[in-house]
Design goal:
Blueprint (H helix, E strand, L loop, with lengths): L4 E4 L3 H12 L4 E4 L4 H5 L6 E2 L1 H9 L4 H6 L1 E3 L2 E5 L2 E5 L1 H5 L3 E3 L2 H14 L3 E3 L3 E6 L7 E6 L2 E6 L2 E4 L7 H4 L6 E16 L9 E3 L6 E5 L5 E7 L10 H10 L3 H6 L5 E15 L2 E2 L2 E3 L5 E2 L7 H22 L3 H28 L6 H17 L1 H12 L4
Parallel strand pairs: 1-2, 1-12, 2-8, 5-14, 12-19
Antiparallel strand pairs: 3-7, 4-7, 5-6, 9-10, 10-11, 13-16, 13-17, 14-15, 15-16, 17-20, 18-19
Helix pairs in contact: 1-6, 1-10, 10-11, 12-13
Bound molecules: 8-demethyl-8-dimethylamino-flavin-adenine-dinucleotide and P-hydroxybenzoic acid (PHB).
Length: 389
Protein backbone atom coordinates (compact mmCIF):
# COMPACT_ATOMS: atom_id res chain seq x y z
CA UNK A 1 0.00 0.00 0.00
CA UNK A 2 1.15 3.56 -0.63
CA UNK A 3 -0.07 6.93 0.57
CA UNK A 4 1.35 10.44 0.81
CA UNK A 5 0.90 10.99 4.57
CA UNK A 6 0.49 8.11 7.05
CA UNK A 7 -1.24 9.37 10.20
CA UNK A 8 -0.88 7.40 13.43
CA UNK A 9 -3.77 8.17 15.80
CA UNK A 10 -7.42 9.00 15.22
CA UNK A 11 -7.89 11.55 18.01
CA UNK A 12 -8.67 15.20 17.25
CA UNK A 13 -5.12 15.88 15.93
CA UNK A 14 -5.06 12.95 13.47
CA UNK A 15 -8.65 13.46 12.29
CA UNK A 16 -8.24 17.21 11.79
CA UNK A 17 -4.97 16.82 9.87
CA UNK A 18 -6.43 13.98 7.80
CA UNK A 19 -9.48 16.03 6.83
CA UNK A 20 -7.49 19.12 5.83
CA UNK A 21 -5.20 16.92 3.71
CA UNK A 22 -8.13 15.10 2.11
CA UNK A 23 -9.84 18.41 1.30
CA UNK A 24 -6.59 19.57 -0.37
CA UNK A 25 -6.37 16.38 -2.45
CA UNK A 26 -3.42 14.97 -0.46
CA UNK A 27 -3.77 11.23 0.08
CA UNK A 28 -3.60 9.96 3.67
CA UNK A 29 -4.43 6.94 5.83
CA UNK A 30 -5.26 7.07 9.56
CA UNK A 31 -4.35 4.13 11.82
CA UNK A 32 -5.58 3.73 15.38
CA UNK A 33 -5.04 0.89 17.81
CA UNK A 34 -8.53 1.10 19.32
CA UNK A 35 -12.06 1.13 17.90
CA UNK A 36 -14.13 4.17 16.91
CA UNK A 37 -16.55 3.49 19.76
CA UNK A 38 -13.74 3.36 22.28
CA UNK A 39 -12.44 6.74 21.10
CA UNK A 40 -15.94 8.23 21.28
CA UNK A 41 -16.34 6.90 24.82
CA UNK A 42 -13.51 9.07 26.16
CA UNK A 43 -14.70 12.20 27.95
CA UNK A 44 -12.13 14.95 27.72
CA UNK A 45 -11.93 18.58 26.68
CA UNK A 46 -14.80 21.03 26.54
CA UNK A 47 -13.49 24.51 25.70
CA UNK A 48 -12.48 25.48 22.16
CA UNK A 49 -10.49 28.57 21.23
CA UNK A 50 -11.53 30.52 18.12
CA UNK A 51 -8.48 29.06 16.34
CA UNK A 52 -9.82 25.54 16.88
CA UNK A 53 -13.30 26.64 15.77
CA UNK A 54 -11.78 28.06 12.57
CA UNK A 55 -9.84 24.85 11.95
CA UNK A 56 -12.98 22.76 12.29
CA UNK A 57 -14.72 25.07 9.81
CA UNK A 58 -11.77 24.76 7.43
CA UNK A 59 -12.07 21.00 7.67
CA UNK A 60 -15.76 21.36 6.73
CA UNK A 61 -16.84 19.75 10.01
CA UNK A 62 -18.05 22.77 11.98
CA UNK A 63 -21.75 22.82 11.16
CA UNK A 64 -23.08 20.99 14.26
CA UNK A 65 -20.62 22.83 16.52
CA UNK A 66 -22.11 26.17 15.43
CA UNK A 67 -25.63 24.81 15.97
CA UNK A 68 -25.15 23.06 19.30
CA UNK A 69 -22.01 24.60 20.83
CA UNK A 70 -22.30 27.31 23.47
CA UNK A 71 -20.31 30.51 22.78
CA UNK A 72 -19.05 31.91 26.10
CA UNK A 73 -18.09 35.56 26.59
CA UNK A 74 -16.60 35.12 30.05
CA UNK A 75 -15.94 32.86 33.03
CA UNK A 76 -15.75 33.26 36.80
CA UNK A 77 -12.90 33.04 39.24
CA UNK A 78 -14.31 32.17 42.67
CA UNK A 79 -12.25 32.70 45.82
CA UNK A 80 -12.68 34.02 49.34
CA UNK A 81 -16.40 33.16 49.15
CA UNK A 82 -17.10 35.33 46.10
CA UNK A 83 -17.39 35.18 42.34
CA UNK A 84 -15.39 37.49 40.05
CA UNK A 85 -16.23 37.52 36.35
CA UNK A 86 -13.50 37.68 33.72
CA UNK A 87 -15.11 39.41 30.74
CA UNK A 88 -13.30 37.61 27.92
CA UNK A 89 -15.16 39.39 25.15
CA UNK A 90 -14.98 42.84 26.73
CA UNK A 91 -11.25 42.49 27.37
CA UNK A 92 -10.18 40.81 24.11
CA UNK A 93 -13.04 41.05 21.60
CA UNK A 94 -12.94 37.25 21.43
CA UNK A 95 -14.85 34.38 22.98
CA UNK A 96 -14.54 30.62 23.45
CA UNK A 97 -16.88 27.83 22.37
CA UNK A 98 -18.04 25.18 24.82
CA UNK A 99 -18.39 21.98 22.76
CA UNK A 100 -17.25 18.55 23.90
CA UNK A 101 -14.21 16.83 22.42
CA UNK A 102 -16.40 13.74 22.02
CA UNK A 103 -18.79 15.65 19.75
CA UNK A 104 -15.99 17.27 17.78
CA UNK A 105 -14.35 13.86 17.25
CA UNK A 106 -17.69 12.44 16.15
CA UNK A 107 -18.14 15.25 13.60
CA UNK A 108 -14.63 14.73 12.19
CA UNK A 109 -15.18 10.97 11.92
CA UNK A 110 -18.49 11.51 10.08
CA UNK A 111 -16.86 14.00 7.73
CA UNK A 112 -14.03 11.59 6.99
CA UNK A 113 -16.44 8.82 6.19
CA UNK A 114 -18.51 11.12 3.95
CA UNK A 115 -15.41 12.22 2.02
CA UNK A 116 -14.16 8.66 1.53
CA UNK A 117 -11.01 9.01 3.67
CA UNK A 118 -9.49 5.71 4.70
CA UNK A 119 -9.01 4.78 8.35
CA UNK A 120 -7.97 1.51 9.96
CA UNK A 121 -9.22 0.99 13.51
CA UNK A 122 -8.02 -1.74 15.88
CA UNK A 123 -4.68 -1.83 14.07
CA UNK A 124 -2.13 -3.46 16.39
CA UNK A 125 1.66 -3.12 16.58
CA UNK A 126 1.63 0.09 14.55
CA UNK A 127 5.27 1.03 13.95
CA UNK A 128 6.92 3.89 12.04
CA UNK A 129 10.14 2.96 10.15
CA UNK A 130 13.01 4.66 8.31
CA UNK A 131 11.76 8.18 8.88
CA UNK A 132 15.37 9.31 8.89
CA UNK A 133 15.91 8.04 5.36
CA UNK A 134 14.34 8.55 1.97
CA UNK A 135 11.70 5.84 2.21
CA UNK A 136 9.62 6.03 5.39
CA UNK A 137 6.93 3.43 5.97
CA UNK A 138 4.54 2.24 8.66
CA UNK A 139 3.71 -1.36 9.51
CA UNK A 140 0.72 -2.65 11.46
CA UNK A 141 -1.22 -5.82 12.06
CA UNK A 142 -4.90 -6.32 11.48
CA UNK A 143 -6.70 -9.64 12.01
CA UNK A 144 -3.38 -11.45 12.25
CA UNK A 145 -2.03 -10.08 8.93
CA UNK A 146 0.93 -7.66 8.75
CA UNK A 147 0.52 -4.66 6.43
CA UNK A 148 3.01 -2.10 5.17
CA UNK A 149 2.22 1.47 4.08
CA UNK A 150 4.93 3.32 2.17
CA UNK A 151 4.60 7.09 2.41
CA UNK A 152 6.30 10.47 2.03
CA UNK A 153 5.70 11.55 5.65
CA UNK A 154 4.47 10.13 8.95
CA UNK A 155 2.35 12.24 11.32
CA UNK A 156 2.58 10.94 14.90
CA UNK A 157 -0.81 12.01 16.31
CA UNK A 158 -0.96 9.11 18.77
CA UNK A 159 -1.13 10.88 22.11
CA UNK A 160 1.14 10.77 25.13
CA UNK A 161 1.29 6.95 25.32
CA UNK A 162 1.69 6.44 21.57
CA UNK A 163 4.46 4.74 19.64
CA UNK A 164 5.67 7.69 17.54
CA UNK A 165 7.62 9.60 20.19
CA UNK A 166 8.96 6.33 21.59
CA UNK A 167 10.37 5.41 18.15
CA UNK A 168 12.71 8.39 18.19
CA UNK A 169 16.16 7.60 19.59
CA UNK A 170 16.42 8.98 23.13
CA UNK A 171 19.55 10.90 22.26
CA UNK A 172 17.62 12.93 19.67
CA UNK A 173 14.94 14.02 22.11
CA UNK A 174 14.93 16.49 24.98
CA UNK A 175 12.02 16.26 27.41
CA UNK A 176 10.76 18.61 30.11
CA UNK A 177 8.30 17.45 32.73
CA UNK A 178 6.44 18.51 35.86
CA UNK A 179 4.12 16.14 37.69
CA UNK A 180 1.63 17.82 40.02
CA UNK A 181 0.92 16.24 43.42
CA UNK A 182 -2.85 15.90 42.84
CA UNK A 183 -5.44 14.91 40.25
CA UNK A 184 -8.93 15.90 39.09
CA UNK A 185 -11.94 13.81 39.96
CA UNK A 186 -14.56 14.59 37.31
CA UNK A 187 -18.19 13.68 36.73
CA UNK A 188 -20.70 14.12 33.93
CA UNK A 189 -24.35 14.38 34.92
CA UNK A 190 -27.62 15.13 33.14
CA UNK A 191 -28.36 18.20 35.28
CA UNK A 192 -28.49 21.91 34.32
CA UNK A 193 -25.18 23.68 35.00
CA UNK A 194 -24.99 25.65 38.24
CA UNK A 195 -24.07 28.78 36.26
CA UNK A 196 -24.32 29.69 32.57
CA UNK A 197 -20.55 30.33 32.50
CA UNK A 198 -17.62 28.23 33.80
CA UNK A 199 -16.51 28.72 37.40
CA UNK A 200 -12.88 28.09 38.39
CA UNK A 201 -12.76 28.01 42.20
CA UNK A 202 -9.81 28.36 44.57
CA UNK A 203 -10.68 27.10 48.05
CA UNK A 204 -8.60 26.03 51.08
CA UNK A 205 -10.10 22.52 50.62
CA UNK A 206 -8.86 22.43 47.02
CA UNK A 207 -9.70 23.52 43.48
CA UNK A 208 -13.10 23.00 41.87
CA UNK A 209 -14.36 23.60 38.33
CA UNK A 210 -17.97 23.84 37.16
CA UNK A 211 -18.17 23.29 33.42
CA UNK A 212 -20.81 21.94 31.08
CA UNK A 213 -21.54 20.21 27.81
CA UNK A 214 -24.99 21.75 27.18
CA UNK A 215 -27.82 23.54 28.99
CA UNK A 216 -28.84 20.21 30.47
CA UNK A 217 -25.51 18.44 30.98
CA UNK A 218 -22.89 19.43 33.57
CA UNK A 219 -19.22 18.57 33.82
CA UNK A 220 -17.87 19.10 37.33
CA UNK A 221 -14.37 18.55 38.70
CA UNK A 222 -12.74 18.67 42.12
CA UNK A 223 -9.05 18.47 42.97
CA UNK A 224 -8.27 15.18 44.73
CA UNK A 225 -5.29 13.28 46.07
CA UNK A 226 -3.58 11.00 43.56
CA UNK A 227 -4.32 7.88 45.60
CA UNK A 228 -8.08 8.49 45.80
CA UNK A 229 -10.26 5.59 44.62
CA UNK A 230 -13.31 6.24 42.45
CA UNK A 231 -15.28 3.63 44.46
CA UNK A 232 -14.92 5.81 47.56
CA UNK A 233 -16.67 8.73 45.85
CA UNK A 234 -20.42 8.31 45.78
CA UNK A 235 -22.27 11.05 43.87
CA UNK A 236 -23.50 12.48 47.18
CA UNK A 237 -19.98 12.73 48.55
CA UNK A 238 -18.79 14.36 45.32
CA UNK A 239 -21.55 17.01 45.29
CA UNK A 240 -21.07 17.73 49.01
CA UNK A 241 -17.38 18.37 48.47
CA UNK A 242 -17.99 20.44 45.34
CA UNK A 243 -20.56 22.62 47.15
CA UNK A 244 -18.17 23.28 50.03
CA UNK A 245 -15.61 24.70 47.60
CA UNK A 246 -18.04 27.12 45.87
CA UNK A 247 -19.46 30.50 46.93
CA UNK A 248 -22.73 30.05 48.89
CA UNK A 249 -25.05 31.29 46.12
CA UNK A 250 -23.82 28.53 43.77
CA UNK A 251 -23.75 25.85 46.45
CA UNK A 252 -27.40 26.64 47.27
CA UNK A 253 -28.54 26.68 43.64
CA UNK A 254 -26.78 23.52 42.52
CA UNK A 255 -29.06 20.90 41.00
CA UNK A 256 -27.69 17.42 41.62
CA UNK A 257 -28.42 14.13 39.87
CA UNK A 258 -26.80 10.79 39.16
CA UNK A 259 -23.48 10.90 37.34
CA UNK A 260 -23.03 8.73 34.26
CA UNK A 261 -19.25 9.14 34.06
CA UNK A 262 -16.72 9.49 36.85
CA UNK A 263 -12.95 9.38 36.51
CA UNK A 264 -9.69 10.63 37.98
CA UNK A 265 -7.09 12.33 35.76
CA UNK A 266 -3.53 13.03 36.92
CA UNK A 267 -2.07 16.45 36.08
CA UNK A 268 1.23 16.92 34.31
CA UNK A 269 3.16 19.35 32.12
CA UNK A 270 5.37 17.67 29.51
CA UNK A 271 7.16 18.83 26.36
CA UNK A 272 9.33 16.83 23.95
CA UNK A 273 11.65 18.75 21.66
CA UNK A 274 12.03 18.90 18.72
CA UNK A 275 8.69 17.94 17.15
CA UNK A 276 10.20 16.73 13.89
CA UNK A 277 12.67 13.94 13.11
CA UNK A 278 13.35 13.69 9.39
CA UNK A 279 10.03 12.65 7.91
CA UNK A 280 8.26 12.01 11.22
CA UNK A 281 6.30 14.81 12.89
CA UNK A 282 4.94 14.72 16.43
CA UNK A 283 1.56 16.42 16.73
CA UNK A 284 -0.69 17.18 19.75
CA UNK A 285 -0.44 15.14 22.95
CA UNK A 286 2.26 12.96 21.35
CA UNK A 287 4.63 15.90 21.85
CA UNK A 288 3.19 17.76 24.83
CA UNK A 289 0.79 17.51 27.75
CA UNK A 290 -0.61 20.37 29.79
CA UNK A 291 -2.69 20.20 32.97
CA UNK A 292 -6.36 20.83 32.03
CA UNK A 293 -6.67 23.99 34.17
CA UNK A 294 -6.06 26.32 31.21
CA UNK A 295 -8.21 24.26 28.77
CA UNK A 296 -5.33 24.19 26.31
CA UNK A 297 -4.54 20.54 25.38
CA UNK A 298 -6.98 20.08 22.53
CA UNK A 299 -6.41 23.63 21.34
CA UNK A 300 -2.67 23.00 21.08
CA UNK A 301 -3.36 19.95 18.93
CA UNK A 302 -5.22 22.30 16.57
CA UNK A 303 -2.37 24.82 16.32
CA UNK A 304 0.17 22.03 15.70
CA UNK A 305 -2.05 20.78 12.87
CA UNK A 306 -2.29 24.31 11.50
CA UNK A 307 1.52 24.60 11.21
CA UNK A 308 2.02 21.07 9.88
CA UNK A 309 -0.74 21.34 7.31
CA UNK A 310 0.73 24.63 6.16
CA UNK A 311 4.11 22.92 5.71
CA UNK A 312 2.69 19.90 3.88
CA UNK A 313 0.60 22.10 1.61
CA UNK A 314 3.71 24.11 0.72
CA UNK A 315 5.53 20.88 -0.06
CA UNK A 316 2.84 19.34 -2.26
CA UNK A 317 1.62 22.54 -3.94
CA UNK A 318 4.92 24.41 -4.43
CA UNK A 319 7.65 21.81 -3.76
CA UNK A 320 8.75 24.05 -0.87
CA UNK A 321 10.40 22.62 2.23
CA UNK A 322 10.24 25.91 4.12
CA UNK A 323 7.03 25.17 6.09
CA UNK A 324 8.10 21.64 6.95
CA UNK A 325 11.50 22.86 8.10
CA UNK A 326 9.86 25.53 10.26
CA UNK A 327 7.20 23.22 11.78
CA UNK A 328 8.90 22.29 15.04
CA UNK A 329 10.05 25.79 15.89
CA UNK A 330 6.71 27.44 15.05
CA UNK A 331 4.69 24.86 16.95
CA UNK A 332 6.95 24.84 20.01
CA UNK A 333 6.82 28.60 20.39
CA UNK A 334 3.06 28.45 20.87
CA UNK A 335 3.26 25.21 22.90
CA UNK A 336 5.57 26.76 25.50
CA UNK A 337 3.29 29.78 25.91
CA UNK A 338 0.36 27.46 26.62
CA UNK A 339 2.53 25.32 28.93
CA UNK A 340 3.41 28.44 30.90
CA UNK A 341 -0.22 29.60 31.06
CA UNK A 342 -1.53 26.18 32.13
CA UNK A 343 1.17 25.91 34.78
CA UNK A 344 0.35 29.38 36.13
CA UNK A 345 -3.43 28.69 36.26
CA UNK A 346 -2.73 25.36 37.98
CA UNK A 347 -0.36 26.95 40.49
CA UNK A 348 -2.73 29.80 41.27
CA UNK A 349 -5.87 27.72 41.74
CA UNK A 350 -4.88 24.43 43.45
CA UNK A 351 -4.07 23.57 47.01
CA UNK A 352 -0.46 22.35 47.18
CA UNK A 353 0.46 19.97 50.03
CA UNK A 354 3.61 21.86 51.02
CA UNK A 355 2.69 25.55 50.86
CA UNK A 356 0.27 25.77 53.82
CA UNK A 357 -1.67 28.86 54.82
CA UNK A 358 1.04 31.14 53.44
CA UNK A 359 0.50 29.61 49.99
CA UNK A 360 -3.26 30.10 50.30
CA UNK A 361 -2.80 33.80 51.17
CA UNK A 362 -0.44 34.34 48.26
CA UNK A 363 -2.93 32.71 45.86
CA UNK A 364 -5.81 34.84 47.14
CA UNK A 365 -3.68 37.97 46.82
CA UNK A 366 -2.73 37.04 43.26
CA UNK A 367 -6.37 36.33 42.37
CA UNK A 368 -7.47 39.61 43.96
CA UNK A 369 -4.86 41.49 41.93
CA UNK A 370 -5.92 39.65 38.76
CA UNK A 371 -9.58 40.58 39.06
CA UNK A 372 -8.97 44.18 40.14
CA UNK A 373 -6.33 45.15 37.56
CA UNK A 374 -7.51 45.57 33.98
CA UNK A 375 -4.00 44.91 32.70
CA UNK A 376 -3.74 41.63 34.63
CA UNK A 377 -7.29 40.53 33.67
CA UNK A 378 -6.51 41.26 30.04
CA UNK A 379 -3.33 39.16 30.15
CA UNK A 380 -5.33 36.27 31.63
CA UNK A 381 -8.16 36.71 29.12
CA UNK A 382 -5.94 36.86 26.04
CA UNK A 383 -4.20 33.65 27.05
CA UNK A 384 -7.50 31.93 27.86
CA UNK A 385 -9.15 32.78 24.52
CA UNK A 386 -5.94 31.64 22.80
CA UNK A 387 -2.83 33.41 21.53
CA UNK A 388 -2.67 33.93 17.76
CA UNK A 389 -1.29 31.15 15.50
P1 LIG B 1 -5.50 11.81 21.70
O1 LIG B 1 -6.88 12.38 21.82
O2 LIG B 1 -4.93 11.14 22.89
O3 LIG B 1 -5.54 10.78 20.48
C1 LIG B 1 -4.47 9.89 20.22
C2 LIG B 1 -4.99 8.70 19.45
O4 LIG B 1 -3.88 7.85 19.14
C3 LIG B 1 -4.23 6.50 19.39
N1 LIG B 1 -3.02 5.71 19.69
C4 LIG B 1 -2.47 4.86 18.82
N2 LIG B 1 -2.80 4.49 17.59
C5 LIG B 1 -2.03 3.57 16.98
N3 LIG B 1 -0.95 2.98 17.57
C6 LIG B 1 -0.57 3.32 18.81
N4 LIG B 1 0.49 2.76 19.40
C7 LIG B 1 -1.35 4.30 19.50
N5 LIG B 1 -1.27 4.86 20.72
C8 LIG B 1 -2.30 5.72 20.82
C9 LIG B 1 -5.20 6.57 20.56
O5 LIG B 1 -6.03 5.42 20.60
C10 LIG B 1 -5.96 7.86 20.27
O6 LIG B 1 -7.14 7.61 19.54
O7 LIG B 1 -4.45 12.91 21.25
P2 LIG B 1 -4.60 14.24 20.33
O8 LIG B 1 -5.33 13.91 19.05
O9 LIG B 1 -3.27 14.85 20.29
O10 LIG B 1 -5.63 15.19 21.15
C11 LIG B 1 -5.25 15.76 22.36
C12 LIG B 1 -6.47 15.95 23.28
O11 LIG B 1 -7.18 14.74 23.36
C13 LIG B 1 -6.07 16.43 24.69
O12 LIG B 1 -5.04 17.39 24.64
C14 LIG B 1 -7.26 17.08 25.45
O13 LIG B 1 -8.26 16.15 25.71
C15 LIG B 1 -6.79 17.70 26.79
N6 LIG B 1 -7.88 18.26 27.59
C16 LIG B 1 -8.41 19.51 27.30
N7 LIG B 1 -7.95 20.22 26.23
C17 LIG B 1 -8.53 21.42 25.91
O14 LIG B 1 -8.08 22.05 24.93
N8 LIG B 1 -9.59 21.96 26.61
C18 LIG B 1 -10.10 21.32 27.69
O15 LIG B 1 -11.09 21.80 28.25
C19 LIG B 1 -9.50 20.06 28.09
N9 LIG B 1 -9.97 19.37 29.13
C20 LIG B 1 -8.40 17.54 28.67
C21 LIG B 1 -9.45 18.14 29.45
C22 LIG B 1 -7.93 16.27 29.00
C23 LIG B 1 -8.47 15.58 30.07
N10 LIG B 1 -7.96 14.28 30.34
C24 LIG B 1 -8.71 13.19 30.77
C25 LIG B 1 -6.60 13.96 29.95
C26 LIG B 1 -9.99 17.47 30.52
C27 LIG B 1 -9.49 16.21 30.86
C28 LIG B 1 -10.10 15.57 32.08
C1 LIG C 1 -14.30 20.59 30.60
O1 LIG C 1 -15.43 21.05 30.35
O2 LIG C 1 -14.08 19.38 30.58
C2 LIG C 1 -13.20 21.52 30.95
C3 LIG C 1 -13.41 22.89 30.89
C4 LIG C 1 -12.39 23.76 31.23
C5 LIG C 1 -11.16 23.26 31.61
C6 LIG C 1 -10.95 21.89 31.65
C7 LIG C 1 -11.98 21.02 31.32
O3 LIG C 1 -10.17 24.12 31.96
Amino acid sequence: MRTQVAIIGSGPAGLLLGQLLTNAGIDNIILDRVSKDYILGRVRAGVLEEGMVDMLDRAGAGERMHREGLPHDGFSLAFDGRDHRIDLFGLTGRRVMVYGQTELTHDLMDKREASGGSSVYEATNVMPHDFDGAGPYVTYEKDGVTHRIDCDFIAGCDGYHGVSRKSVPESALRTYERIYPFGWLGILAEVPPVSHELIYANHPRGFALCSMRSHTRSRYYIQCALDEKIEDWSDDRFYDELRRRLPAEHAENMVTGPSFEKSIAPLRSFVAEPMRFGKLFLVGDAAHIVPPTGAKGLNLAASDVYYLFDGLLGYYADKSLAGIDAYSERALKRVWRAVRFSWSMTTMLHRFPDTGEFGQKIQETELDYLVSSKAASTALAENYVGLPY
